[in-house]
Amino acid sequence: MSEAAFFIDHSRCIGCQSCLQACAECDTHRGVSMIHLETIQRSDSVQTAPQVCMHCEDPICARVCPADAIKKTPDGVVQSSLKPRCIGCSNCVVSCPFGVPKYRAEIDQMMKCDMCYDRSSVGKKPMCATVCPSGALTFTTMEDIQRTRSGIPINTWKFGNEVVKTRVYVMVPREVEQVNVDLVQISSTPTALQDDPYDVALMLEDAQ
Amino acid sequence: MRQPEFPVRGSDTAHAFGWGLLVASALIAAISVGSRGLKDFDPALVSYAGASVFAAFGIGYRYSMWLRRPPTRMYWYRGWQLFMKPQHLLGNIMHLASIFWNNIFLQRFIEKRSRMRWTAHWFLAWGCLLAAAVTFPLSFGWVRFETARDNQEIYSAFMFGIPVGSFRLGTVVAELTFNILDIAAVMVLIGVFFAFWRRGRDRDARSVQQFSNDLMPLILLFAISITGLFLTASTHLMHGLHYVFLSQLHAITVIFTLLYLPFGKFFHIFQRPAQLGVDFYKKAGAEGEQAFCARCGEAYGSRMQMEDLKAVQAEIGIRYQMADGTHYQDVCPPCRRKNLALAQDGLWKAHGMDVRGMGKEL
Questions:
Q1: How far, in Å, CA of A76 to CA of A118, rounded?
Q2: Among A55, B63, B171, B291, which residue is least crowded by beta carbons within 10 Å?
Q3: Complex-level ipTM
Q4: For residues B330 and B298, is the Cβ–Cβ distance under 8 A?
Q5: Which residues of chain A are within 8 Å of residue B295 when distances are taken between CB atoms?
C-alpha cells in the first residue's frame, strides 16, 4: 500500500463550504482559512471549485521570493513563508500558477495551505479532506483512488511553456497525461448575468 | 529573450567571497582607526574582536549571495531607485522614520501575529541590540572608561579617544552604566522564557520548528545571558568565586554565537530591513499604473510589479508565455483558480464524459 496522497476533483465540489470552515480549525493557521473556494457562474450552471496548495516539486512561489522565505519540508510539503524572513512583497501571491498563497497585510506575511502540517506530518488527513462530503478533496492512497474513481490522478501541468509537477493530484479522464492550461473564457461573468435574487452563485458569494 | 535590467556578472562564490573579505577588512580598519592605532584596544577582549571579524566576513558573504538571487536583486535596486528619486526623497525619509518606528522599534506586525510572540521577540531583540551597542564598541576599542586623574570617585567615558562624559561612582548613572549588560541579559532571559513557553505549548510551532533553526538560537542567547549574570553574581555575591572560569565560559558562548550569526536564524537581523524597502515599492506600485487581468479585466496589482516579475521569471527560467501570445502572469490569482476548474471540466467534456466523471456517455 502506497503512502496517502491528496487528490482534487473540482467537478465533484458541491459548494457546501465545509472545507472553508474546517481549514480554519487547523492549528498551523488557527482561525484563518487557507483554502480557496471559487464560484464560477457559467451560462448553464454554477460551478464551485476548491483550491488547495498543489505543493509543487520546484515551487515557483519559492523561486520568485526575494527573501528566500518559502521552504519545502523533506516530505515535499511547501510551507507558509518563514515569519522572520517574509517581507510581504506578494511576489509569491501573483506568481503561483495555481493562485494559492494569501498575503495577510495585518501581519505582513504570506500564508498558504500547508496541508495541515500539524496533522499530515503525523499521518492524519488534512482538515478539508476530512470533512469534504463529496470526495472533491480526498486524502487517501493511490490504490484506493484508482479503485473508486473512473478517471486517473495526474500531477503534471503546463502553463504556457512552463511544466509544473505537483505533490497533489487532480482527477482527469484516463486518456489525459498532463493538463495544458489555456485561458478558458466563459461568457457568463457576474456582470453578464441577469440580476436574479435566487441566483445560487450570488448567494454563495454573499455567504462568503 | 529580454535582457536582465540588473545583470549578474561573474561567479557567485567569488563575488560573495570578495564582499566578505571587504566587509571583514573594513571592520579591521575601523577597529584600528577607532581604537587610535590599537592604543585603546583591550587585549583581554581580542577573542571577541576576532570572532566579530569572522562574523563580518560571513555576513558580507551571505548578504552578497542573497543579493545575487534575481528576485532579491530586482527589489534591492528598484527599492533604492524609488527611495532616491529626488522629488520624493524628503517624503521618503519621513516615511522611513514612520515605518522604522512601527516595524522595527515597536514591531507592531509581530504583535498582530500574537501577543506572546511579540513579547518574546521584543525583549529578545532589544535586549540583544542593547548588549550589542555596548559590547561591540568596547571589544573594538572604540569606547573606554577610566578614572579621573585627580579624583578616584569620578569615571570618564571616551569614544574614539574623545571624552564624551563623566559620572561619579555610586550615582544612578554609574549604576546603570556598570549594570547595563545585566539589564540586557534580564531582557533577553524574559524573551527566552516567553519564546520557550510559546514553543512548548503552541501546536503550530511544535509541528514545524527545527532544533538547529528555532531552538538553537534561544539556547545560545540563554547561555550568553546566564553566564553573563553569573559573572556579576561571582563579583558581588561570591567574592569572585570561579570568576576566571566563568569569564572563559561566557566568552565561549559569545564567540560561538558570533560564528553562528551569519549562517542561522540570526541572519534575519540583517535581512529584515528589506521590509522597509518593499514598503516603498508597494507604495509606488499603488500610486502608479495598475495591472488588469487578461481574463476578468479587474485590477490585481501594480503594473510595475508584474513587469518586474516577468523579467525575474525570464531570468530564472519560468516560461509563462502562452501559445496565443498572451502571458500567464497577466492573469489574476482568482481567475487562475477558476481557470483550473474549467480546464478540468473541459477535459471531461472533451473525452465524452459527464463532468462528474461517472463514465457516462454524453
A1: 14
A2: B171
A3: 0.89
A4: no
A5: 183, 185
